[in-house]
Amino acid sequence: MKTLLLVGATGLVGQSVLRQALDNPDVAQLVAPTRRPLPPHAKLENPLVDFDALPEGAPWWRVDGVICTLGTTIKRAGSQPAFRKVDHDYPLAVAALARRSGAGAYALTSSVGADPSSRTFYLRTKGETERALAALGFPSLTIVRPSFIGGDRAERRPLEALGLRLFAALTPLLPRRYRVVSADHIARALLEAVLAARPGTHFIESEAIAPTP
Predict the structure, then answer these.
(1) pLDDT digits over 165-201, tens only?
(2) Is residue 138 part of a domain?
(3) Which residues constitute the domain of residue 112?
(4) CB-based contacts of 200: which residues, under 8 Å, 6+ apart?
(5) What pLDDT sits at residue 149?
(6) Within a domain: 162
(7) N or C: which end of the chain has fewer CB within 10 A?
């Protein structure tokens, strides 16, 4: 049984990780730092934090593994620097503090096409985050790279919802790498990766996240 740290627990994928981890008998305790409180659970520790001022000496950094589902959009963040803070700076800050406290495994939700050399700011930021995480020396690092993420969001994103419906309709014609992947499947891949903690760096591309239909 392991103690895990989850950041991004209020997002679409993070909520699914939260549910699955709390239901999993191999998880003894789940630490989920958030800005606002989560519903209580016997296995859940929910410290309220400011991600711009994370408490470096908190005892709850001592975990076996970390799952990071932090992410936003440039539109929602309001600017490229604000987006980079959520998708690059926060995941790295969490990773560094957990690694310093002995965490041996880290799993990240990234993106299909992530590349530090990309001309696209979004994909370049994702790729730079992956590269920086690899330099932190986790014995087990897993990068999950989904395409479009399907699921019921609490916030309304009309254009994204339209795009998802369009992609769902075109699914039979699309390469598997670019098909919609459910948040639950992504969450399962992240959780399984951290619990297994296979040595080395592993990339799970979008077409490998869910079983072949």
Answers:
(1) 665 666 666 666 667 889 999 999 999 999 999 999 9
(2) yes
(3) 2-153+181-204
(4) 140, 141
(5) 86
(6) no
(7) C
- Specify the long-range contacts of residues 159-163, CB closer than 8 Å, at least 24 apart: none
Interval 74-85: pLDDT, tens: 889 999 999 999
Whether 21 maps to a domain, the answer reads yes
pLDDT digits (tens, 9 = 90+) for 16-71: 999 999 999 999 999 999 999 999 999 999 999 999 999 999 999 999 999 999 99
Name which of 97, 26, 28 is nearest 68 in CA terms. Answer: 97
- The candidate with the shortest Cα–Cα distance to 212, out of 176, 182, 171, is 176
Pairing relation of β-strands 44-45 and 149-150? unpaired
Q: Order of strands, edge to edge, in the sheet holding 27-31?
A: 44-45, 27-31, 2-7, 65-68, 105-109, 140-145, 200-205
Domain CATH number, residue 146: 3.40.50.720
Contacts of 192 (CB under 8 A, 6+ apart): none
Does residue 163 form part of some domain?
Answer: no
Structure tokens at 117: 């050399």
Gap between the Cα atoms of 33 and 12, Å rounded = 16
- Residue 85 to residue 51: CA distance in whole angstroms: 10
d(CA 196, CA 176): 25
